[in-house]
Amino acid sequence: MIYLITIVSYGIARKNVKFRSGGFSLGKFSKPIFITAVLWLVVEICILTIPKDFHKVSIVSGLMVLSGVFLYVIFFKKRQLNQINKAM
After folding, report:
1. How far is the C-alpha of 42 from the C-alpha of 61, rounded, in Å?
2. Closest CA to 50 of 38, 59, 37, 40
3. Tens digit of each residue's pLDDT (9 = 90 or more) over 7-27
4. At a CB cut-off of 8 Å and minimum separation 6, what does 55 contact?
């Protein structure tokens, strides 16, 4: 859990961090790596804290949440973009 807190706090504060020239930097890959690290830690924390009896329930619940997010992005965001384009 402390790793997740550390990574999320870095993600929040990274806009205010001044990097030294010549130091290590991920450049444009820092955001995708940050998102991957957070997702990986959330999955690992869920796997390690949810009892074995509820693993199947948590997988189904996770898939339902992912499908809901997918449908939201496909239908509602697309509709909002179409309405914005028609207004112009």
Report:
1. 15
2. 59
3. 888 888 888 877 777 778 787
4. 47
Supply the pTM of this predicted model. 0.60
- Alpha-carbon span 58 to 38, nearest angstrom: 18
Query: Is 26 in contact with 33 (CB distance < 8 Å)?
Result: yes
Residue type, 63: L
* Helix locations, the chain, DSSP H: 2-13, 30-49, 55-71, 78-87
The pair of structure tokens assigned to 19 is: 């990097």
> How many Å from the N-terminal Cα to the C-terminal Cα in the chain?
47
